Amino acid sequence: MQNRYLYKLAEECTVLQCDNIYLYMSENLDIAKTKVNVQSEYGHLNAVLLHRPGIEIERMTPTNAAEALYSDILCKHIVDNEYANFSGVFEKWCKVYYVEDLLAEILDKDEVRLSMVTDSCKHENCEHLIDSLMALPSRTLAKYLIEGVPYNPATDPKHFAKDHYTIKPLYNLFFTRDASSSMYDQVLINSMSFHVRARETMIYRAIFDNVFHAGTICAMDKYSSARTEGGDVQIAAPDMLCIGNGIRTNSKGIHYLMEKFANERERFRIIVQELPQHPDSFIHLDMVHTFLGSHQVMAYKPMIDKTGCFADKATYLIDIQNGKPHYTECKNILEAQKRCGMDMEPVFCGGGDEWYQDRDQWHSGANFFALDDGKIIGYERNIHTIEALNKAGFDVLDAAEVCAGKVDMHDYKKFVVTFKASELPRGGGGARCMTMPINRD
């Protein structure tokens, strides 16, 4: 049966199809020339996938925030301003694609539309909505698949009433790194650890299969118990990954990647860093370690010193030669990298003070994203971390001035662009979490 409630909502949303931003993006996407190619964390960035946080983030309440994997609720009108400076920096630097634009584009294809709608409804146990969703315009359908479909007491089974949504909002979608990861010339569709994020992978698989025509792989396609997330997978070099092993990426997921490269490469190395199960600020490796360039990393000092909650967390180097893995336990991740020919200088999150190290790490103070070798972006609020970067030779640039054209990033050899944020860090991620690089030199 057709759902008139959805049609009414669709009519209210039609004005969004004429939004100048969306039209601008659609007219300027040069997708055909963009190939997935990411050989490191710090090569010059040519293309990136982002998602502007939409009203899905305001569909959290204190009641469902924990289920949505948040420790707090966000204020969208503040997030909008913060994210505008973040995304604006990328628009000054490289080609930027937005998830909603690409999703709306591929939903024009009948087979993609049918698959996305059917799979989404099966996942949420609301197959009664399939016909109504199939009839919606592509842009409106894309919004519903991201922002959720509100519960309709006239047509929806009553058990949906407690959640207020028949199809739940994708609260975490603006963390584009987690559900998919460009890995060399392929895309790892990650096997998410929590049910609330599983539909994100459907969107990314469809985008990379149908827009960029990239090869997609997924650990769960081979091992149902395997779990990987993009925040734990770092491309250290063309023949080496650094992977976090914790609450989001498990040993079976790492085993899948080890098998893959053992079958494909004569020589490959994987550095595995065990992570604490608690607190939530340690959910991914990129919350304690990110690459700043070819010779520097940002690191949380207790992870390097193996103190505090890292006292019993091991670091392993898996050296795969001719299909056979060799395991070596290392002092820390820096020693493991040095064994692989990467002598990395650490800059410590929070600087040299233990108190500030913990405070800055809590709000993603170690979570930086490299636009190029030694050219990075991160939160301004972590002032002690930014101060440590400045002492390490990074010029400090203001994102608002970059976006306004007052500062040209290309004039600087080594820099950190800082953007003001109070609400975004409350989501539990930083600049690397919010970016999905598609192509680097």
Describe the structure.
Strand 8 (233-237) and strand 9 (240-245) form a beta hairpin. It is built from 16 helices and 20 strands. The protein has helices at 4-13, 20-28, 76-93, 99-106, 110-124, 130-134, 138-147, 176-179, 198-210, 219-222, 251-264, 301-305, 333-339, 354-362, 383-391, 399-403; strands spanning 45-50, 95-98, 149-150, 165-167, 180-183, 186-189, 215-217, 233-237, 240-245, 267-274, 289-291, 296-299, 315-321, 324-330, 345-348, 369-372, 375-379, 395-398, 415-419, 436-440. Mean pLDDT is 92; it is low at 12-29. The strands form 6 sheets. It has a 5-stranded mixed β-sheet with strand order 8-9-10-13-14. The chain is an alpha/beta fold and 441 residues long.
